[in-house]
Amino acid sequence: MTDETTMPTGSTLPDSEPETGDRPLKPALWRGWRRKCPNCGSGPLLTGYLKVNDTCQVCRQELFHHRADDGPAYLTILIVGHLMAPGLHFTFVTWRPEPLTLFTIFAVGCVGLSLYLLPRLKGAIVGYQWARQLYGFGKTG
Question: Please, where are the H alpha helices in the chain?
Answer without folding.
Answer: 25-33, 71-95, 99-131
